[in-house]
Amino acid sequence: MSTLSVLPALVLGPLAGKTEASWQQAPPNKWTPAQIVEHLALALEMSATTFSTRKAKEPMARRATTLREKIGKMFTFGIGRFPPGLKAPERTTPQPSVDGPRAEAHFRAALAQWDAVERDLLPGRGQDLFVKHPRLGDLTIREWARFHLVHARHHARQIRSRLAR
Q1: Closest CA to 110 of 88, 94, 122
Q2: Angle between the N-to-C axes of helices 100-121 and 141-163, in degrees from 0 to 180, rounded to the nearest 10
Q3: Tens of pLDDT along 76-112?
Q4: What is the CATH number of the domain that holds 108?
Q5: Based on the structure, what is the number of domains in the chain?
Q6: Less crowded by CB within 10 Å, the N or C end of the chain?
């Protein structure tokens, strides 16, 4: 079972049975629930794809962590929150218009891709394979899974907030 098996209920659960209009509601200059789901899919897909392309590499060593990365890890992994004022990396920024069904399908496909990474690479490559996070530095598969869980919780709160309007 994937460490991220709770994500469909967490992220998509509040959207179950909602109309497309619900997937599209957001305050001005904020992402819609559809864009949030797409953003989460892009992040999952990016990390899963990168790990998959590195599975044949020799064991890796973690690069030194900068002060900024250490602070980011303290917030993300210690407190379970993101430092304030962060902007999504361009690679994970959704398009201005994303429909709900497409975002949901992409999210589910990205989760399946992540499940394959865990199935194929753990436990054997759990400590010697890294993918650099733009704000947290080099992370292992398990650390990325933990990031994705904290990340999804963060955005699930936003989805619930938008649906409550």
Answers
A1: 94
A2: 160
A3: 999 999 877 788 999 999 999 999 999 999 999 999 9
A4: 1.20.120.450
A5: 1
A6: N
Give me the domain span that covers residue 125: 7-163
Does residue 2 belong to any structural domain of this protein?
no
- For residue range 48-69, what is the model confidence (pLDDT) as tens digits? 999 999 999 999 999 999 999 9
Query: Domain for residue 64, yes or no?
Result: yes
Nearest to 133 by CA among 117, 146, 152: 146
Taking only the tens place, the pLDDT of each residue in 133-160 is 999 999 999 999 999 999 999 999 999 9
**Alpha-carbon span 31 to 94, nearest angstrom:** 9
Decide: 146 and 81 in contact? Cβ < 8 Å.
no
Cis peptide before 96 (omega within 30 of 0): no
pTM: 0.96
In a domain, 1, yes or no: no
